[in-house]
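Service request form, structural biology core

Requester: graduate student, group of Dr. S.
Request type: structure prediction, single chain
Budget code: on file
Notes: please return the result as structure tokens.

Sequence provided:
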Amino acid sequence: AGPGHDRDCLGARMYGETAGKRRVLVADDHRLLAEGLKRLLMDEFELVGIVEDGHALVKAARETRPDLIVADISMPHLNGIDALVQIRHDTPDTRVVLLTMHRDITYARRAFDAGASGYVLKHAAPVELVLALRAALRGRTFISPDLAGELLRTSAQAPEARANPVAAMTPRQREVLQLFAEGKSAKEIASILGLSARTVEDHKYRMMESLGIGNSAELVHFAFKHGLIQ
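Core staff response, request fulfilled:
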């Protein structure tokens, strides 16, 4: 197979190198938005690829090792925050800015706890994203001003007041939960994650027990409520 086949295997559309520009990888399952990000960033940054789900993002980050990543939170198969955790492990020098519709400060806190360099709301002015990327390159963090005050206020609360059941789950449990919520069967999840169907079911029932959830429908509702899927 030729070079084009290799690029397809990355799950990304690759672009030519531009000397002197910092390299950015974009992850968003809304193609029109992703193309808009490409146009916004291309003057200042080199776009190395666009991916449309969390697993493809982790793989492309490992292969391309970009300086920066712009990623949505709600993506198929693996959400942006859990993808961020894996990326920070694989390529710790890559800075990740999350671009999201979620205004709930819980998501922002999870993102920064996972190692995000920025949290930008999708409805914000495009200049906010560019500012976030520049801040990330300087080793700083950026959050949309609409959320900054609330983040500071809630960060001062006692830990028990900020308890987040999603944060207490293991990364594998969150992967399994997201895929169940997307309508995948235990057999399909097992194939995607390289597990046995029995192990997948075991993860499911352990989550239900720890969360006090009685059935699969409630588990899916929990995933929607906590932003694992849209």
